[in-house]
Amino acid sequence: MPYLKKIYLLIAILFQNLVCTEIYGQVNYFNYHAKIIAAEDSLIKGANESAFKIYAETFNQYDFVFPRDPLIAAQFAYYYGEKELAVKFLIKGFQWGLMPFHILRCPVFNIQDRSFTNLVKDAYFKERPMHLKKINVEVAEKVLNMRWLDQIYKNINPPFTIDKNGKVKLDTIMSQILDTVKSLTNKYGFPGQKLTGILHNNTMKELGKNGELDLPNRYKNLKDKEFHKAQESNSNLNTFDFLSNEAVLIALYHLPCAFHQIGEKILIDNIKTGHLYPADFAFLYTAEYCKCFSSFKRKDSIKIIELCPNTEPFNGGYGVAIKYDINDSIRINENRQTIGMCTLSHNNEFNILAQKKNIIVRFGFMEYK
């Protein structure tokens, strides 16, 4: 019996270690974001060698990385003459969806530098087939469908309707989008780049699926473009904006209360697992609770309160997609820290540094604000 007790104890310890590894080890993306912030801080301070070491160690430690991060690291490495290191960083980005057009649109890279571009091209073609195998095709297809529905109905459908009994209901299309996000999140994790890579104009065709589902083809085949107030730009994913998972975020932004409906705890858990980028969490929070957004989100609307319970007052949020009051900066920094974001001053200094060197570090609608 004592022998069996020892065996049970050993199994319990091993299980506990596995759980701790899952929560506190490599897959804890709060640690990942802290390392990326540390690398950026080193760049701000001019400690470039330290920054590149942190980037390299982080990219080696984590299988999935947000592809924006190796692209940023590669730009700085190239700027400082570390071309071989820049290629290594781009290889990590290629593993999670970076494409040549992303590199071509970064002005810091000299496209006439043939030794560099040849290495990049060879690396891309080597890594691309392996990246495609990582994509969850079901999630990619549903996200594309979500994006399309949002874009063709956003200008003609109200966000909510009121039935004959005066009850407020979410618009049918918006309900469909919200249900899809919640279902995918429950099944796989929040539908972001860990599952889909970077979606582009030929995603389904490249995956060997029905190319008619790709957005440019949907736009081409759409009847009544005038009725839907559709523009060709609605179908274009080949921009820097989609390094920020905008295909999902903008669809959720158009919902009156996506943050509340999905749930703060679920969103926090998805930051931990790497399915949700911290700034995306902040954007969804701001879109729901800040009165600065479009009129149908205002919390002083009696009808919208029926749909979105006013669970908390907006307190400055996370300083994302809004012009914040400098007097709120301490509270905002505290909020940012809880979800793995850098301080406001760090963000400003890093953006200024990048701008001086013609390096792109901001992607997506929310980051231009």
Description:
- It contains 20 helices and 2 strands.
- The chain has helices at residues 2-24, 29-44, 48-61, 68-79, 83-94, 100-104, 114-134, 137-153, 172-187, 193-196, 203-206, 215-221, 225-228, 246-253, 258-262, 264-272, 278-289, 302-307, 329-338, 344-356; strands spanning 160-162, 168-170.
- A two-stranded antiparallel ribbon has the order 1-2.
- The radius of gyration is 22 Å and the shape is globular.
- It starts with a helix and ends in a 13-residue tail after the last helix.
- The model is unreliable at 1-26 (pLDDT under 50).
- Unreliable parts: 1-26
Helix residue percentage: 55-70%
Strands of the largest sheet, in order across it?
A: 1-2
Number of strands: 2
Tags for this entry?
globular, 59% helix, 369 residues, 20 helices, disordered N terminus
Helix and strand topology:
Layout: H1 2-24, H2 29-44, H3 48-61, H4 68-79, H5 83-94, H6 100-104, H7 114-134, H8 137-153, E1 160-162, E2 168-170, H9 172-187, H10 193-196, H11 203-206, H12 215-221, H13 225-228, H14 246-253, H15 258-262, H16 264-272, H17 278-289, H18 302-307, H19 329-338, H20 344-356
Antiparallel strand pairs: 1-2
What's the gist of this structure?
The protein has helices at 2-24, 29-44, 48-61, 68-79, 83-94, 100-104, 114-134, 137-153, 172-187, 193-196, 203-206, 215-221, 225-228, 246-253, 258-262, 264-272, 278-289, 302-307, 329-338, 344-356; strands at 160-162, 168-170.
